[in-house]
């Protein structure tokens, strides 16, 4: 048995390898990104999907086929994947499907701090919540067990501190060999027309009742007896903060956060004088217990915001509602000094454009000295939001509206916005700028379908951004804004002045990734040349 | 080995090697037989912004994060981050600021992180040999000599300072 210092993400990857996961897929998103990268490095079949919805669907297909599949994403990614998720709960799976969703309480690198434990309740799926890398490793096996036992997708909730903290992990000596995938026809179980979906919903609820009964006795939920004065109910990394803040208390640590082991929790709460729920984010556990008639104390509202830590747990225990000292204000992130996007933002600022922005490094164009972004909401939203602004604003404002989106974000969910633009064009036209630095830069330089290289940087089929736009009849120009800032500005002025639909692809490799991209592309070229010319895509 | 958990915060700006230094420290503590946890935030902070990394080691470590104001050691790589992070240090804790290592004595300024680790190592219950193993394990071979020199420079300065102040 080997003991190594691993992050939670690396631990999930190692468990995926050891459990014989047949396919890992996902979309990059802090803090989940490293799982698939590490799984690929360990020899697992890991691939990036264009977005989380597609990733979940690919994972679901693999699990329908009897394989063990792992799908990873950040918390907001599950919003994108929610549509297939909710109905996958009805269809269930043949093999195993584990869906990692990594929450970001405190928003270290996210646009919101939604609590994805709510998704387990809404979709009616079991959810595991590991506290540290060792549990991340162990729970992945348990998630697979649950998924196979009840033929259901299982949600795996991590948080920033579980994903990115490192601690010692002991791995299993022997890897598992799952049964080989093979198709089993089950039309009523898999085709969710209403006549089949109605019984499927009832079946799901019956499975959940069984899993709830399992949770009442399973050692995935653990009680550590301590003082009868204070009982703490907790999950995830909060269990560690709480154990440090109040070493003498009685603890109920929930590993299976949905469905909750309500009767065991009722008994635990009855056995202590004061029973407090310590949880990060929304009061999900506290609300569920109160709804079940269990008298528990929840954290004060001020602790819904941000992450918890030992100090904040001490405050909760003490009922201390005084103003917390502000977090150290360090230097904020900014566009790299040599970022190719500087001239783009300089022009947008100079021309006083109304900028519907999007998610990526380039969101930093909102910072000084440019302050050249007026909205940023969700992946791909720049295009729809820009169109909506164009539709209603008076002409002198409407003609200054620009949508700005990165290459990976465009592939993720910008394309449907372009279809909307073609179908419902604003009277004065519209201008979309695709900032194409040839990589998913913000999350640490991941590949995507537009790069033509796989997760492991090998040659594969390539989606052309300008090809997609031109196929929809969009007037598309390509240029390097860094090499020709004046040319970029001139082009932008020209496009803003016409009532046409235009796209400007501002293309230059990310300064942090350029050297790597050159290396990968050289290797990819060599492999393309050695395979049958022109058949590279079919071969890949 | 005492039962107390030792809390070290490393701070600086993205690209300075804060995370690398904390990886080396955590690895050295593992090699010395301690339970170790380390936590930092990735993502936005990598774009030239402030970076801090918490490393905790002892017989048994619970939370991966150092409670605010309870760091025993604060190692800072960027002058601009010293005042910002000072409140993280406990009263009586030790601050190792970048000016602790005279720039002129470093062969390469990129080794400041390892030089400050050397200074820190003089105060920790981890043998120098184990620390150097961790430094070598974390870096490409061509960087070994330069970083070992930086480590020893920092360690020697810390030993001199401690001797002068009459403390360990």
What are the defining features of this structure?
heterodimer; A: 540 residues; alpha/beta; 7-stranded mixed sheet; 5-stranded parallel sheet; B: 168 residues; 5-stranded mixed sheet; 5 helices; globular
Q: Describe the main β-sheet of chain A briefly.
A: 7 strands, mixed
Going by helix content, strand content and strand pairing, the class of chain A is: alpha/beta
Give the beta-strand count of chain A. 18
Give the strand line-up of the largest sheet of chain B: 2-3-1-4-5
Strand portion of chain A, in percent? 15-25%
The tally of beta strands of chain B, per DSSP, is 5
The general outline of chain A is globular
The helix-strand sequence of chain B is EHEEEHEHHH
Computed over alpha carbons, the radius of gyration of chain B is 15 Å
Global morphology of chain B: globular
**Share in β-strands of chain B:** 15-25%
Largest sheet of chain B: 5 strands, mixed
Multimeric status of the protein? heterodimer
* Overall pLDDT confidence of chain B: 92
Overall pLDDT confidence of chain A: 95
Task: Please give a quick description of this structure.
The complex is a heterodimer of chains A (540) and B (168). With 540 residues, chain A is α/β, with parallel strands linked by helices.
Overview of the molecule:
- The complex is a heterodimer of chains A (540) and B (168).
- Chain A has helices at 8-18, 34-41, 52-64, 75-91, 117-123, 133-150, 160-164, 187-190, 194-217, 238-245, 262-270, 284-291, 310-318, 342-350, 381-392, 395-398, 407-423, 465-471, 485-497, 514-530, 536-539; strands spanning 3-7, 23-26, 46-48, 68-74, 96-103, 127-128, 153-159, 166-170, 222-224, 227-235, 249-254, 256-258, 274-278, 354-356, 401-406, 430-436, 475-479, 501-507.
- By secondary structure, chain A is an alpha/beta fold.
- In chain A, α10 links the parallel β10 (227-235) and β11 (249-254).
- Chain A is globular and about 75 Å long.
- By secondary structure, chain B is of the alpha/beta class.
- Chain B has helices at residues 18-31, 82-85, 112-121, 128-138, 144-165, and strands at 6-13, 35-40, 50-58, 71-76, 89-96.
- In chain B, strands 2-3-1-4-5 form a 5-stranded mixed β-sheet, with helices on one face.
- In chain B, α1 (18-31) crosses α4 and α3 (112-121) crosses α5 (144-165).
- In chain B, 52% of the residues are buried.
- β8 of chain A pairs antiparallel with β2 of chain B.
